[in-house]
Amino acid sequence: MKQALPALVYEDLTPTRDYLREVALILGSLQRAFLPKDPHDWQHGLQVNLRGLITQPFVMNGEASQASLDLVRRKLRLNGSSWPLQDYQAQELFNNVRAWLEAHSIQAKLAQPNFNSSAKHFNEQQSDLFAEALWWMDKQFNWLKTSLQGGLSSPIFLYPHHFDLSLVWFPYEDDRQLAIGFSTGDETIAEPYLYLTAYPEPAGFTKLRLPKQAYFQTAGFSGAILSYDKLQTSDDPAAVFRNYANLLHQARPLFG
């Protein structure tokens, strides 16, 4: 049975997406206070789990800890404490996390996230739609990761700054890399989309034969783009994704 994808309307989703991104920035700030710097900067990435987004494991006062953005119960969670999303602005949640650390005598220097506004825009329905799309994408990315032969592949992370889910492949275990990601839209492309990029971009990359639903983006950044809408409205989204993701294997030889 083919799994359906929810429709994401950019204009409807964006206010709630922006709020969730700011909550994710709080998780990122917290984990970076305790995680060592990674050579690939993976200390910035959050993981997807069955309830939403969760930090990488870290240690506080000798105890294993994690914090999460629970998209099922719609709460920010930290070691047994929780704060409902509908009750707080992002800055208030950040202040609550700092107060929690102080109350537990935990010394940590949390970087203040750059919140865009003091407004709170949280719509439960839009949050649920985003969560459903996120879980579907994470499943596809995990399938893709198992298909990559050779080299080094990154963990599948959501990066709070751009709020995109990403998988990076270093096929020759050096600086050359191919990346696939899922974005809910931005100033460059004002709709949810998948992207596939190569760095440093090899000759012939933009000459790759794309699936008919995809196109090359050249303004703002260079990459092969597949609109989420094209994926969502197809008869078999998973098959369309896998056909698109096959570009990773086609692009690898271009590095020479």
Itemize the secondary structure elements and their pairings:
Blueprint: H1 10-32, E1 47-49, E2 52-54, E3 58-60, E4 63-65, E5 67-70, E6 75-78, E7 81-84, H2 90-103, H3 124-147, E8 152-153, E9 157-159, E10 164-170, E11 177-183, E12 193-199, E13 214-217, E14 223-227, H4 228-232, H5 237-245, H6 247-251
Antiparallel strand pairs: 1-2, 2-5, 3-4, 5-6, 6-7, 8-10, 9-10, 10-11, 11-12, 12-14, 13-14
Helix pairs in contact: 1-2, 1-3
State the share of residues found in helices, binned by percent. Answer: 25-40%
How many structurally independent domains? 2
Rounded mean pLDDT is 95
Number of helices: 6
Please give the number of β-strands.
14
Please give a structural write-up:
The structure is a single chain. The model has no long low-confidence stretch (mean pLDDT 95). 34% of the residues are buried. The protein is α+β, with helices and mostly antiparallel strands. β3 (58-60) and β4 form a beta hairpin. It has six helices and 14 strands.
